[in-house]
Amino acid sequence: MDTIFSHKAFAEQLGGLPFELLADFERRAVEAYGVRRDDVPGYSGMPRRSVFIVDSRGVIRWTWERSQEEPLPDFDRVVAEARRVAGV
């Protein structure tokens, strides 16, 4: 839900990224992917922390959503799943 300007600054801080970041200021993707949160006062419509791996046809092939047991994704698993979906 951050702006394209904040995403650009973030990517520059990291020295660039090999993919684009989604700017969803109007919360359209948050709604479409079913990750909208309305339980945080002052932040209505913010997304639950989540990862979606989408194949070249636009099909969601793998997901992760934050839970109390797993507040951050296993980054090695995310990379492995992305490689599996990409056929690499």
The residue fraction in helices comes out at 25-40%
Please, what is the average pLDDT?
91
Count all strands and give the number. Answer: 4
The largest beta-sheet arranges its strands as 1-2
Strand residue content: 15-25%
Residue ranges: pLDDT <50 for 5 or more in a row?
none
Q: Radius of gyration from the CA trace?
A: 14 Å
Amino- and carboxy-terminal Cα gap: 30 Å
Name the structural class.
alpha+beta
**From N to C, what is the helix and strand string?**
HHEEEEH
The total domain count is 2
Tell me, briefly, the overall form.
globular
* Largest sheet data: 2 strands, antiparallel
Total count of helical runs of at least 4 residues: 3
Task: Report on this structure.
The structure is a single chain. It contains three helices and four strands. It is α+β, with helices and mostly antiparallel strands. It folds into two domains: 1-48, no CATH class; 49-88. It is globular. It has helices spanning 4-13, 28-32, 75-86; strands spanning 36-37, 46-47, 50-54, 60-65. 31% of the residues lie in helices and 17% in strands. The mean pLDDT is 91. Strands 1-2 form a two-stranded antiparallel sheet. Strands 3-4 form a two-stranded antiparallel ribbon.
